[in-house]
Write a structure and sequence with these properties.
The chain has a six-stranded antiparallel beta sheet with strand order 3-2-1-4-5-6. It has a five-stranded mixed β-barrel with strand order 7-12-13-14-17. Strands 10-9-8-11-16 form a five-stranded mixed beta sheet, covered by helices on one side. Helix 3 runs parallel beside helix 4. The chain folds into two domains: about 220 residues, PmbA/TldD fold, CATH 3.30.2290; about 110 residues, no CATH class. It is globular and about 70 Å long. It is α+β, with helices and mostly antiparallel strands. The chain contains nine helices and 17 strands. The relative contact order is 0.13. The two termini are about 45 Å apart. It is an enzyme of class 3 (hydrolase).
Amino acid sequence: MNAIIPAPPAHDDSQARLDRLADIARRLLDGCRARGASEAEVSCSEETGLSVNVRMGEVETVEATRDRGIAVTVFFGKRKGSASTADLREDSLDATVEQACAIARHTEDDEAAGLADRERMATELREFDGWHPWAIEADQAIDLALACETAGRDADRRIENSDGASLGSGSSLSVYANSHGFVGRERSTNHSIGCALIAGRGDAMQRDGWYSYALAAEDLESAAAIGRRAAERAASRLAPKQVPTGDYPVVFAAEVARSLIGHLVGAVSGGALYRKASFLVDSAGTRLFPDWFAIEERPFMRRGLRSAAFDAEGVATRESPLVRDGVLQRYVLGSYSARKLGLATTGNAGGVHNLEVAANAGDLPSMLRAMGRGLLVTELMGQGVNTVTGDYSRGAAGFWIEDGAIAYPVDGITIAGNLRAMFGAIEAVGSDVDPRSHIRTGSILVGRMTVAGES
């Protein structure tokens, strides 16, 4: 799969740096108590990264980053104040606490404000194999990015130009602590290689690309394979056609199918629900999908992109279904939104942790054969999703399918429907899971959607 064998860092001081952040967090909490705060929480983070960009065989940018941040939130009863700083000097930290307290003293009471309940704090703190620093130097990163682009440009004579190739590598250390006595540490790494190429020339140009993303460099696809995949995708889009406007079955390729699940998550998240800005208000316990459809949240996956023992409030995460037998089992809540709704937190402050959509079909080619005739969507454009009504309208590109096989590329079309109806019309989920997201799903076949093409 890859030829990247990263050298381990000469010295890993991450635990010592986490110790330092935890000490800072405790001192800040002491300062909050000394100023009369009834509750307080502190987040401390350090991030480092390297990114390079090349284009047409030349280096465009090389950037090394090192960021840190401290955020303090205090509660005086039901009044809340927050302040932040990137300066670790004692006087700056003291000033940050003072500013947060001053803000809290001048805000209005909010009955939903406050820390998550003490008894919900995580007690089993562990890691999930997400720490894999890559001791890569800028010169090596440049060489890999150039190799990626070169492989793509050499793969097909129809590749006329390039939007460039890139490599990124980063690490993050964070500590969350609160006045319940909870102190949680997390460390993670992320690495990526990507390439975007242009096939054809003039008005016939088509652009596409590919990238690989992983927590450990050895899990990345090889630079050359990424370049060749980018070239194949760009060239396959040449000479596109449109299709007659009508209602057709639509397969969302895995890399875009996860956006459908993302719309579901957004609609069942606490902020949208208590503001009545969701088409799924009061939908917990109702059937939204076919009876075979299921989504499981799995926060404890080894090398999961969003694995965590606790959420952004220190609440213990847990494996639980989001959808089972087609029925929405629960919402996605932190403590604030849960209180606004008269419910309990689901351990999702900060978002969901590794959603897995159960497959009921084989790979993409087998799904296309089963569909027979319709549209395969590989790219979505625009922001045409109304979360209040569920109305869905997106620009799209992909391929027209005849007799279960790709007939020709298509672009300049719009696909439309309503998310509630689309969820109910899902006929298949493929086994071709795209591993580059915390929403792990294969391709998704929606039985019927409106496709606006030629009049």
